[in-house]
Amino acid sequence: MRQPNKKSQKQTKPWYKKWWGITLIVIFALTVLSATASEDQSKKQPTKQTSQQTQEQKQPQYEIKIAGSHYVDPATRSLTFTVKNVSDVEGNPSCDVTLQNDTGTYKGFDTVTWNTPLKPGETKYFEGNFIITNEGAAYATKSHVRCIERSI
User: Fold this and answer.
1) What is the pTM for the complete model shown?
2) Domain 62-149: assigned CATH number
3) What are the pLDDT digits (tens) for 36-67?
4) Distance of CA 67 to CAs 15, 25, 64, 133, 134, Å?
5) Taking a C-beta distance cutoff of 8 angstroms, is the pair 145, 81 a contact?
6) Alpha carbons 58 and 137: distance in angstroms, whole number
7) Taking the mean position of all CA atoms in its chain, how far away is CA 114?
8) Domain extents for the chain?
9) How many Å apart are CA 60 and CA 96, to the nearest integer?
10) What gap in Å lies between CA 132 and CA 106, rounded to an integer?
């Protein structure tokens, strides 16, 4: 009987372990990685049109300082505050004013606006009286002012 040739019994390597298989795998991996990186980069870089829209829609920012609050009569409390436009765009602030005690039993509120726009860096002054519920003006010592941009 004849012995099989040792060369014919030699096992071949799988394709992914051969030099050309490894080359194919590396090329495929690099292609996938570069496509993913370019997608991420395109998401991070805004287009010129988007940045122009952002500049057009820029909203003014306001800084509020409460200068004082004092008792006028049992149902009325006076409040003085300033609003400064701290942004670089002109604005028309609408300020919601609330005066109350700690528990909210005695409360007064109103909205304050001005007839002229507030230019960048400009400050407007307000002093006015607010009606407090249940004649609790003596107790409504907490005041809060919040200003947002109003539509013209």
Assistant:
1) 0.61
2) 2.60.40.10
3) 776 666 565 555 555 544 545 688 999 999 99
4) 81, 71, 9, 23, 25
5) yes
6) 39
7) 26
8) 62-149
9) 16
10) 6
